[in-house]
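User: Could you go from structure to sequence for me? I need the amino acid at each position, not a summary. Structure tokens:
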């Protein structure tokens, strides 16, 4: 009798039953699709490794004073202090944050010209790299996490204390490469001691993963019309799901550089990105540049791949980064010469401008400034 009553109820309310069944089917299908996308994106986070621009020994190391300090969460990290030549007027201190699978000695490739110009340079090894220890439960990946932020937070605290002990002013700049650039932006968003940032190859994990999911969707989406016509809200929800799942699996947090830079108080920042970067599309730096407060600059290095701007255009790279820190970090004292103005000839040669935007075809380098 109960079974007949149930059937009778279903028959009397067939429209409602049909609607609820349809909603349930759509929800189950959506969950199935999202699980497939998330599983693939987690595989990307597990296995995708950035290309190496050059071998790790393509530069001559710089000698300095070894340092040992603690990350914010207490893990032991190794550093290297490169004191500027005392015969050169001191201009400030720059903390160098290396890229994934590199180490502190790579600062020689990017910062030698700054050191020779009078900047102290402090480079350090992120956990799991070089001489720094790494907790057993953590595996470093190319995606910046809260652990790398703890590392650079510890480096910044160490340098602030070092400057105080040396009775030197806190003129601190950050110079980060790829994942190191992401960590630099994240710490600058919370610490006012950072006065200028150079970010070479920066990206935001959430938007980069979304790009990779869109790029590789055809591998697991059998119906082409579906993966080509997902609503943007679907991808935003998917990347949110992915980040949450990745945080649980890898037991760490993946902070959003995109959100951090949007809330960062005005700080001079100089973005650099290779025009031919096939690993991280140039749109990643363009997105961060658009979100960053003034003053900001963007250089798209012609023909350069990932982290190769310094290799493809060494003289321009040195000139632009030195001028940026000279303008925003160095404060000449009485008797010191200020940075000479850039002549039209030099603008044409370097692409340096604060009022114009150049494309890669317009000059040797393209710089947008404001």
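Assistant: Here is the amino acid at each position, in order:
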């Amino acid at each position: 009798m109960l079974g007949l009553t149930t059937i009778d109820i279903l028959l009397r309310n067939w429209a409602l039953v049909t609607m609820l069944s349809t909603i349930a089917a759509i929800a189950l299908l959506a969950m199935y699709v999202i699980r497939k996308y998330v599983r693939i994106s987690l595989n990307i986070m597990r296995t995708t490794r950035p290309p190496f621009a050059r071998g790790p020994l393509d530069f001559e190391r710089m000698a300095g004073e070894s340092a040992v300090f603690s990350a914010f969460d207490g893990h032991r990290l190794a550093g290297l202090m490169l004191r500027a030549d005392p015969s050169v007027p001191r201009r400030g201190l720059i903390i160098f944050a290396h890229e994934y699978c590199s180490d502190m000695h790579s600062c020689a490739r990017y910062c030698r010209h700054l050191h020779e110009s009078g900047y102290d340079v402090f480079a350090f090894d992120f956990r799991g790299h070089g001489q720094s220890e790494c907790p057993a439960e953590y595996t470093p990946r190319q995606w910046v996490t809260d652990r790398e932020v703890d590392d650079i937070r510890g480096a910044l605290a160490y340098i602030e204390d070092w400057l105080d002990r040396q009775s030197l002013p806190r003129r601190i700049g950050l110079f980060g490469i790829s994942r190191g650039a992401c960590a630099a932006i994240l710490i600058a968003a919370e610490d006012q001691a950072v006065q200028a940032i150079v970010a070479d190859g920066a990206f935001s994990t959430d938007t980069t993963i979304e790009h990779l999911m869109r790029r590789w969707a055809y591998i697991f989406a059998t119906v082409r019309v579906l993966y080509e016509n997902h609503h943007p809200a679907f991808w935003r929800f998917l990347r949110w799901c992915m980040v949450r799942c990745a945080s649980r699996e890898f037991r760490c947090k993946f902070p959003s550089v995109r959100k951090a830079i949007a809330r960062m108080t005005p700080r001079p920042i100089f973005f650099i990105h290779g025009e031919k970067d096939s690993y991280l599309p140039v749109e990643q730096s363009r997105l961060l540049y658009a979100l960053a407060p003034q003053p900001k600059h963007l250089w798209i290095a012609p023909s350069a791949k990932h982290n190769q701007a310094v290799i493809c255009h060494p003289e321009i790279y040195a000139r632009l980064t030195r001028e940026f820190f000279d303008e925003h970090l160095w404060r000449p004292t009485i008797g010191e010469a200020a940075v000479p103005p850039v002549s039209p000839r030099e603008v044409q040669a370097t692409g340096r401008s604060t009022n114009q935007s150049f494309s890669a075809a317009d000059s040797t380098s393209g710089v947008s400034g404001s």
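One structural detail worth keeping in mind: Confidence is low (pLDDT under 50) at residues 339-365.
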